């Protein structure tokens, strides 16, 4: 009942080295590096991708689980969907010949812990509520809609409605601390914060809203608030923006039929079909500019590869080492990312046929479970549900929050089952488990910050033929990473 990687095997490195001169070397075979390599290969460059690990794709990865009955199932063990706030990922998938699919419109739930408002000394109690259909970071757009009243209750909805009549409070200056929790509590009340914003912000940003600055995580919301003077009106304005769906609770997302990992397979195939090569297990030691400033030498162990262009598609710490003096000194020290652990459970559980928590659950940091979120994958994705026998379900739990580096151990099956039972409201025992797999993603929640983008842009300006891509420059999420990587290596961004 274990699992193995579903990534395509990469042949011997020497056999994959291109025979003709390299035009573009991409250092890093995560999704940003593969997208950049594919774009340049389609433009006619002869491309070489060098990845230090044994697998490409970064956090877009699949795995095949061997089940107790002798069958198998392949699932995503990294990103399983993408935000549709921009068309970047959907366009990429379609360009690769993949089918973009929508999740089941069941919607997701929120799970939190709260005290009775008339008794501050009362113990915390768990609360599970369906997420409103139209919201921004959990902030509802219409406090009197049926789904919002169901989530907040009459008093909670009334308190949120007061926002519309409250005087405008100014956004603090940049040098003053400000948290999403304080903002929501002031404008909309504790119930909105506890039941909606804390679970959604915790799921989207893997952090307590008390640690999130709205100017960083929701600049569009802040800009809309400064125009309208109301947090409800601002949330409504952002939710109505192009690219935002209005028919599904939570953040609008989509997926790929067969799993997100298929994007990686197709990118590698397309790069190779265009004459490029993808090599794994190759750690680049140095990027050296030619003496005349025209072209590069990429050093990896005893190997040297000459290239006209170099794309640095590595994590921040690796890029800092490789680019050296090309990167201006950091004006601040970015915090390191926290680890993320995933536990995938394959269950024979008729009680889950009714999808008791819709497509999944987002969990507030205050809740009585360690998991920060649960995805009921077979409820969320019809293609996966159709591929499995009746009563068989795939449930994935996610662990690890930003700023909390202490939890690096992947929970065992019993811990994950206990969390799943609480979150789903259904008792699940060990006998229901027909397959499971734990996955550890180190440093997965490293944030992108504005001064990093400025440093990368300065390095590119100082070194013709250099492009820097990746989450530390582009921002969080596939939509940001894919869109940035594609634009960064497309003319006129690259000559």
Automatic annotation (TrEMBL):
Domain of life assignment: Bacteria
Family matches, as Pfam families: Amino_oxidase
Entry GO MF terms: oxidoreductase activity
Record-annotated Amine oxidase domain positions: 31-474
Entry-linked InterPro entries: Amino_oxidase, FAD/NAD-bd_sf, Zeta_carotene_desat/Oxidored
Official protein name in the record: Oxygen-dependent protoporphyrinogen oxidase
Lineage: Bacteria, Bacillati, Actinomycetota, Actinomycetes, Micrococcales
